[in-house]
Amino acid sequence: MGLLGKIFTWWDGATIGTSLYTSRKGTKVGEDHQGNVYYEGGADVMGRTRRWVIYNGANDASRVPAEWHGWLHHSIEGTPESFLPPPRIWEKDFTPNATGTPHAYRPSGALEKGGHRQRATGDYEAWSPDAS
C-alpha cells in the first residue's frame, strides 16, 4: 500500500497515524496465529494501559481470537498464552465472518438463491384488505 493509501484508508491495514503512534509509544506484546500483532503503551483516560491490534490484512474485528479479545479489554493482565488452558478437542477453529460475501448464509427464499420458497401450509391464511 502506498503512502496515500496509508494516509486515507483505515479498512485495509493500519493508517499512517496508527503506524506513527505504534512506533513512538507502542511495545509489542505478542502475535496470534493469524499474524495480527498486539501492542500496548501510554495510558487511556481511566489511567489503564492502552492496548491495540495491528491486523495482518483487512481490519476486521471478528479476526481477533477470544483470548486476545480478553487481553485487549483488560480482562486478563498477562499475555493470553500464560493464562489459558490448552485448547479442547471440541473447540472449533476460527472461520472468518462471511457476511457480504458469496459464502454468507442465505435461507431458502432469499433473492440471492432465486427467491423461491415452499408454499405456506397449515393454519396460515394470507391477509387481504377485502376480508372482514
From TrEMBL:
Source superkingdom: Bacteria
Pfam families, alphabetically? NDUFA12 (PF05071)
Per the record, its GO cellular-component terms are: respiratory chain complex I
Cite the residue spans of the region called Disordered: 91-132
Xref: InterPro entries:
NDUFA12 (IPR007763)
Give the source species: Sphingobium ummariense RL-3
Biological process annotations from GO: response to oxidative stress
Q: What is the lineage of its organism?
A: Bacteria, Pseudomonadati, Pseudomonadota, Alphaproteobacteria, Sphingomonadales
In Swiss-Prot or TrEMBL terms, this protein is called: NADH dehydrogenase
